[in-house]
């Protein structure tokens, strides 16, 4: 009797525990993916997750979004995420219980790893999405971008077309140059002379000769870094060159093991050893990098650096002191072909804006809702904010033209306003080419295009078929995806520490180079290059 | 339903020695039951997941559905160029954390215990254990600010006193990573960890102090002959338990403090598992490396336990 009651207690405890630990996944799944209940007004209820920028306000307060929901006759319950998605998503996806719609939350490798979790949108688009069909017929390359190696389409792409072809610009403080009576540098050698003058003089004329930072940049793998100077040596970077990959003469290569990278590191090491580069260049985070360049109010602190746009990089007070610097030659008599990173695809094309759960019971309604974003004028609002009195993002001029409004919140710059007020670049969108000329852009974007014009000539030179490498367009099998990921982690471990070490110490790079290249290659780079070459060749064959 | 005492009828339990011995204390077993259930569900239950380390992870078939891969992922780790660096870094950080971090709370407890005024004792104790509640993210942000080579308070102070060379970057220098890691950990956890020793010290019989004083012992001799022996069992048990986690070097703090410059010493097993296993979706590989880590921890725990048992007859098992 006693034994039995204890046993019963144990069992009861176990059962209680089990129900708490979520072993009962079958019960849960019904209310996550398969909720087919409708609202009293007859709208379809859907759950959605959105990975948004940390500035972006609560999306349920965006009127333009409510209008899309209204039109598609759906009611969305939003889950909004703005940090650490990379860590959270593995757990969420592995549980198999995902919401109906996933905005900006998936990547190609997820489709490979979590095969069966996401819906193939191809048939749904053919049936229910006239806007997306129109987008695909006008830009077939977007369909290529979105189609995976198995011929299925798990995420809809995005297209802007109005963004510039380069991510980073090179800036130099013209006021400082004038104060010291110097010319704008055109070669690495002249740049060094200028930086030395920045260090020794008092170019910001505040009486303190030690507060100037001649040169500052982001950690090397990021966007705003001296890797752009590789273009001085005839190395054609493109589309962000993430993890160092680029193509030259239709060959996939990696700049971390390229002789020209060695030359660049030797130059940077020389600058660093002369105290010309910020001491915190490796360890500072992006916010510190930004705040340092904004100086103290009206006194500039940084002489030469990289960034997106002067207003964004130096703030309204200081932006007029800086000018965009065209690509430098290495020496006055160098004959290397000059390049600037061609980031047109990287800036204007995006993949996986929205995915749909394969378990969703309302895929038609979900697709109706997604298609709403791709109506060109709606897409404009996705990017810049609503065309109404609540959102105050865009003005409809009434004659088929539109103007992007300045921030309604005077304390924000136009860029921050855009990211606060709308999905911005993270949203699903299709800005039709016919619409492009009818939009008056905000002051920040006008400025961006104006500033980056100095690189136009170099960008146009990049050959689509041999020197441009849009990594987004490449597709890999499950096995290749896994191999690439494993190898890359090992390769990054070496390259990441090596460049930082070379920069900040006085070791002889020439002497270490061969051993370094050998170790990177044997850590998996060679294998990765082969896999990437195969995918790149396939991509080239799709180009007309 | 008369409550059973130790007078259990022989015939029902004949031949069952274990049950006969323990049936009498069923109240104790009932009390420990919630803990047993908790451990069974949350600690032993999830262990079925370790088979992932021996399988090809296949999402559609679940954690346990993939094809058997044998020791493939272990071999992959042992052959990977990151095997020795991660193992070495983990050991170094763990070793110095225990070597310097373990005695500090004991010293602190002895100091606190020797303070006569209760008010001062309370103030000191509260002050030193408060940092324990600072989250790791905030702590690392604090370190970044205080140790910044241009504007850092601590950095500037050390340089002004010529304790470190003027061109040192405390948050980037590979040589500074371990000291910064260990010292900040001591600052943060020392007060909190000393609580258990203070509690042990408070149980020392006042007569022993009196006897020591009559025998003419000075303060140091009292510490050495009365207080240390009194807390020795606590010290040994805690040391054994710490040995068990020797390689579980805190992921959060290491990851947050990591940058390109200090990566040669800051890439430890747990950050490597994260970088490869979680961020690149290589779940099977990550599990294998994690399991390897646990095996080493287990070995250390058993070694320390056996050693303590042999030398001082104090042990966990």
Structure overview:
The complex is a heterodimer of chains A (544) and B (317). Chain A is α/β, with parallel strands linked by helices. Chain A is built from 22 helices and 14 strands. The radius of gyration of chain A is 26 Å and the shape is globular. Chain B has 317 residues and is mainly α. Chain B is 68% helix and 0% strand. Chain B is built from 16 helices and no strands. Chain B is flat and about 75 Å long. In chain B, 26% of the residues are buried.
How is this structure best summarized?
Chain A contains 22 helices and 14 strands. With 544 residues, chain A is of the alpha/beta class.
Oligomer: heterodimer
Question: What is the mean predicted local confidence, pLDDT of chain B?
Answer: 84
Report how far the terminal alpha carbons of chain A are from each other.
83 Å
Total strands of chain B: 0
What spatial form of chain A do the alpha-carbon principal axes imply?
A: globular
Strand order of the largest sheet of chain A: 2-1-3-11-4
The helix content of chain A is 40-55%
Query: How many strands, what sense, and barrel or not for the largest sheet of chain B?
Result: none
Shape of chain B: flat
Strand content of chain A: 5-15%
Distance between the termini of chain B: 37 Å
Label this structure with key terms.
heterodimer, A: 544 residues, alpha/beta, 5-stranded mixed sheet, 4-stranded mixed sheet, 45% helix, globular, B: 317 residues, mainly alpha, 16 helices
List the helices and strands and how they pair.
The complex is a heterodimer of chains A (544) and B (317).
Chain A: H1 2-21, H2 25-32, E1 44-51, H3 63-72, E2 74-81, H4 85-95, E3 101-103, H5 108-113, H6 122-128, H7 130-138, H8 140-146, E4 155-159, E5 169-173, H9 174-180, H10 188-200, E6 213-216, E7 245-248, E8 251-254, H11 259-273, H12 286-293, E9 302-307, H13 310-318, E10 322-324, H14 344-348, E11 349-356, H15 363-373, H16 376-384, E12 394-396, E13 402-404, H17 414-421, H18 433-436, E14 439-440, H19 443-452, H20 456-461, H21 478-504, H22 509-542
Parallel strand pairs in A: 1-2, 1-3, 6-9, 13-14
Antiparallel strand pairs in A: 3-11, 4-11, 5-9, 5-10, 7-8, 12-13
Chain B: H1 10-13, H2 17-23, H3 26-44, H4 72-79, H5 83-101, H6 103-114, H7 118-129, H8 136-146, H9 153-160, H10 174-202, H11 206-214, H12 219-244, H13 251-257, H14 263-266, H15 269-278, H16 283-312
Helix pairs in contact in B: 4-16, 5-10, 6-10, 7-10, 8-13, 10-12, 11-12, 12-16, 15-16
